[in-house]
Design brief:
Layout lengths: L1 H13 L2 H30 L10 E8 L4 E4 L3 H10 L3 E15 L5 E8 L3 H5 L5 E2 L14 E4 L1 H8 L9 E4 L2 E8 L13 E4 L15 E6 L5 H18 L8 H7 L2 E6 H6 L2 H33 L1 H9 L4 H37 L14 H26 L4 H7 L8 H37 L10 E6 L10 H15 L4 E7 L9 E4 L1 E2 L12 E7 L3 H5 L3 E4 L4 H5 L4 E5 H8 L2 H4 L3 E3 L7 E7 L14 E5 L2 E4 L2 E4 L4 E7 L7 H10 L8 E5 H8 L1 H35 L1 H9 L4 H30 L15 H27 L3 H8 L1
Parallel strand pairs: 4-9, 6-8, 16-21, 18-20
Antiparallel strand pairs: 1-2, 1-10, 1-11, 3-4, 3-7, 3-10, 5-8, 6-9, 7-8, 12-24, 12-25, 13-24, 14-16, 15-19, 17-20, 18-21, 19-20, 22-23
Helix pairs in contact: 1-11, 2-9, 2-11, 2-12, 3-6, 9-12, 9-14, 9-22, 10-13, 11-12, 14-22, 14-24, 14-25, 22-24, 22-25, 23-26, 24-25
Length: 821
């Protein structure tokens, strides 16, 4: 029975190849777009994390509303307190990521490393494939240093040799014993480290503070997030009482910060804020499917009208309304399924394109793909689409009017206005949804343009190449000797052909680095024991701002003399100077310091603000210290653990330049690798990557919506013209001019377009508010965008209407009347 029905449906579709092709292609585009976006949402947001019982894993954070920080990391003091006194967590681990230099296994290289406390892998239930994981003994500073390898690094560097256990690996100049190899496919949240090191805390040296580690915990069975947060809140005062305060810090400072608990599902640590972007994109692409369904429904209405005689004969022979309805719905479902198969094929290619275009840093990219969940979703969407576009023809024609249908013999005769209302309504809906998508796309274009116009605090970023070099203390002692090695490398790079200037900073603009710490201002004293605002810290060399193209607003810049003499000076950002002294020049000679127990540092210069958190976020206040400082925090002499070189050159894109730079570095020391090579323009582009990704998706969705909307208008006007052939013939026989006939149909198309634009504008004004967090420099109700969309749609609709209108005006009256006779 079922095969017979499928054969009948196939024959009917095969007899109308153009209708079938257009319907399947339209549905395939709509379904494929939704399947592709859903595969991203499924991989990033919906799939459980690849750990045992992931629903019990939590990220352990703090919040500090008193200083404006919604998320604050853990510190060794809080970790030790929570592990010893906690009641709701089975265990907790600290972790962090950074880079290290590995030597002795070929050319020196800079690789990503994960550092953990000994309980971290136990929390995650991860067991090595070779050797063992870290124990409390490995995590102690009193024992020999050890290391674990990831499977990828083990195979790349040691060829998968199982005898690697017990062998040494030289990390930052220190040999470490290899004790284990992690399982294949290991990925820590969204990080892909090459090796893993223990943190090696010494409880006797731990003080309150140093909130620079992230925490992962496993809830005890039956424990809720609220209970875990209450438990952490109970233990925060314990940690402040149990460990000594760092020099210059008081208990009141932490009380003023209002340190509180923030335990949340571990998946939130992986996903971050990308979820809101993906759901907005999913909603907009869903509109494309609705437009596609409306378009195919219009085609189906036309096809159902042409089959009225066939359906009337079925009814006359005894077929009930349900049987006739099934004839129509089965055909629409079949088209939906075929469209779903085509859509799945398009989605496969679309997913690859989406992953390639995805912003760098999009979490869980390796989990994105066409899997059984995506296939089930696609099948469901295909069936739903089949029902949606088949529903209207079924309701309208499931009970054919036998007398009129048989009398007409299935011919296309002139129709009254009421007969076209449903098709007109569908076109209006298509146009309205197209307006919503085009407005969303236009807002993202305006956002991207606004971002491009922002002054980031540097100039001609495509000419600035950046790279990172870290000199381990095992190679050169921290202090002047280390600084001189950094400078020697800088001088060698300056001598490379085409290099205009070179400067250094502990963290380059927009790279996500930099320390955030309190700053005390002499002119604005804080109450005894109080905590001042938190500011961004960076350490620089001479010529850094000149190389970056950052404008000097007042005073002078840091010199090599300031560095080597460890002069107590600082260069601040313009917004910091204006916050306290209104005018940048007024800040010169004023004094600040990082701790109440350390000496004052004199402000000698003010530089332009830099969008250090990305072009879409306000510029933070930044303190630029000389790269060597005395009596800084609790260090006698402080030099950053690594420096990023900024190199201005017209050869920034040259493939040979990096090799020349590497040789310049090795001429100073052959054990120093070059890492993180990228242009400043790449870094700026990354800060706009999420907007670029959303822009690409919305632009494609808007273009498809516009195309389908125009096709819908064209189809309706063409069909109306064909239905009114006799009427047109009579009008022209009575003396109507061709332009009058054209105006008749053009007016019809423009009325439909205007109705759709009005409805779409109202809907866009309501729906685009969901995009507010994605916008920058433009309102969700930006009038320029709405007007541009209305004009663009009006112009394209005019073209789509003019073509069938012109064809109708060329009808031969005599031929039209003979054909209708």
């Amino acid at each position: 029975m079922l095969p017979d029905r499928l054969r009948r449906i196939s024959r009917r579709l095969w007899r109308a190849p153009l209708f079938t092709f257009i319907a399947v292609l339209t549905l395939g585009v709509g379904i494929g777009a939704n399947a592709a976006i859903f595969s991203v949402i499924n991989g990033v947001l919906l799939k459980p994390l690849p750990f045992v019982e992931p629903d019990r894993l939590v990220g352990v954070w703090h919040t500090a509303p008193g200083i404006g920080f919604p998320l604050v990391d853990l510190s060794p003091s809080t970790y030790l307190t929570y592990r010893e006194s906690g009641r709701t967590l089975e265990d907790i681990g600290l972790w962090s990521t950074f880079s290290v230099t590995v030597t002795g296994t070929g050319e020196p290289e800079r690789i990503d490393v994960l550092v953990v406390t000994e309980g971290t892998f136990g929390v995650l239930r991860i067991e090595p494939q070779l050797g063992r994981r870290f124990t409390a003994d490995d995590d102690s500073p009193r024992t020999p240093e050890r290391v674990m390898l990831t499977d990828a690094y083990w195979r790349r560097k040691f060829g998968g040799d199982s005898s690697v256990i017990g062998r040494p690996l030289v990390v930052d100049g220190k040999p470490r014993e290899i004790i284990g190899v992690l399982p294949a496919g290991f990925q820590f949240l969204d990080h892909q480290p090459q090796i893993v090191l223990p943190i090696r805390l010494n409880p006797a040296e731990v003080r309150v503070g140093n909130f620079s580690f992230q925490g992962v915990g496993r809830l005890k069975p039956g424990v809720t997030l609220d209970q875990a947060n209450a438990d952490i809140a109970r233990m925060i005062p314990l940690s402040l009482d149990r460990f000594p305060m760092p020099p210059g810090m008081t208990r009141k400072m932490f009380d003023d910060a209002k340190l509180g608990p923030r335990v949340r599902p571990l998946s939130a640590d992986v996903i971050g804020d990308v979820g809101r972007v993906l759901w907005v994109l999913f909603g907009t692409v869903g509109l494309v499917l609705l437009i596609a369904c409306a378009n195919v429904a219009n085609l189906f209405l036309v096809r159902a009208e042409s089959r009225q005689q066939e359906l009337a004969i079925h009814a006359a022979l005894g077929a009930g309304r349900g049987r006739v309805a099934w004839e129509l719905v089965s055909e629409s479902l079949a088209l939906g399924v075929i469209g779903g198969i085509v859509g799945l094929g398009l989605a496969y290619s679309g997913v690859r394109a989406l992953v390639a275009a995805a912003p760098r840093g999009l979490p869980r990219v390796t989990d994105i793909g066409i899997d059984p969940t995506v296939i089930v979703f696609t099948v469901a969407v295909s069936l739903l689409a089949g029902v949606l576009f088949g529903l209207l023809p079924m309701v309208r024609f499931a009970r054919p009017q036998l007398t009129s249908a048989l009398k007409e013999g299935g011919r296309l005769s002139s129709a009254g206005r009421g007969r076209h209302r449903l098709r007109n309504a569908l076109v209006v809906v298509e146009i309205a949804m197209a307006v919503v998508l085009l407005v969303a796309s236009g807002l993202m274009i305006r956002t991207f343009q606004a971002m491009r116009r922002v002054d980031p605090g540097f100039t001609r970023p495509e000419e600035v190449l950046t790279l990172r070099i870290a000199i381990p203390e095992t190679l050169v002692p921290q202090g002047e000797q280390m600084v001189r090695m950094y400078e020697a490398i800088l001088r060698n790079i300056e001598r490379i052909s085409g290099v205009a200037s070179v400067g250094m900073s502990s963290d380059i603009t927009m790279d996500g680095g930099g320390s955030n710490d309190p700053i005390f201002v002499e002119d604005f004293p804080i109450a005894a024991g109080g905590l001042p605002p938190i500011r961004r810290f960076k350490w620089i060399s001479e010529n850094y701002f000149q190389t970056m193209g950052t404008r000097l607003v007042a005073g002078k810049l840091v010199t090599w003399s300031d560095v080597y003499n460890a002069n107590p000076v600082v260069v601040v950002s313009e917004n910091f100077a204006r916050e306290y002294w209104k005018e940048p020049a007024a800040a010169l000679g004023r004094r600040i310091r990082e701790s109440p127990s350390n000496p004052w540092r004199t402000i000698v210069g003010v530089v332009a603000d830099t969008r250090d958190n990305g072009v879409a976020r306000p510029a933070p206040a930044i303190m630029h210290w000389p790269m060597m400082m005395k009596a800084f925090w609790d260090n006698k002499v402080f030099v950053p653990g690594g420096m990023t070189y900024a190199i201005r050159t017209q050869r920034a894109g040259s493939p040979t330049l990096v090799k020349e730079i590497q040789q310049a570095v090795w001429s100073v020391n052959g054990n120093l690798p070059v890492a993180g090579v990228r242009t400043l323009d790449d870094i700026r582009s990354r800060s706009m990557a999420q907007t670029s990704f959303a822009l690409i998706i919305l632009a494609i969705a808007g273009a498809v919506a516009l195309l389908l909307g125009v096709v819908g208008i064209y189809g309706v006007i063409s069909y109306v013209a064909s239905q009114r052939t006799r009427e047109v013939g009579i009008r022209m026989a009575l003396g109507a001019a061709k332009r009058d006939v054209s105006r008749l149909f053009i007016r019809h198309g423009l009325v439909l377009t205007a109705a759709g634009v009005v409805l779409g504008t109202i809907a866009a004004a309501a729906l685009t508010r969901a995009m507010t967090t994605l916008l920058f420099g433009v309102s969700a109700l930006d009038p320029l965008t709405y007007v541009a969309v209305a004009l663009a749609l009006g112009a394209t609709a005019l073209v789509a209407t003019y073509l069938p209108a012109r064809r109708a005006a060329r009808i031969d009256p005599a031929a039209a009347l003979r054909w209708e006779a």
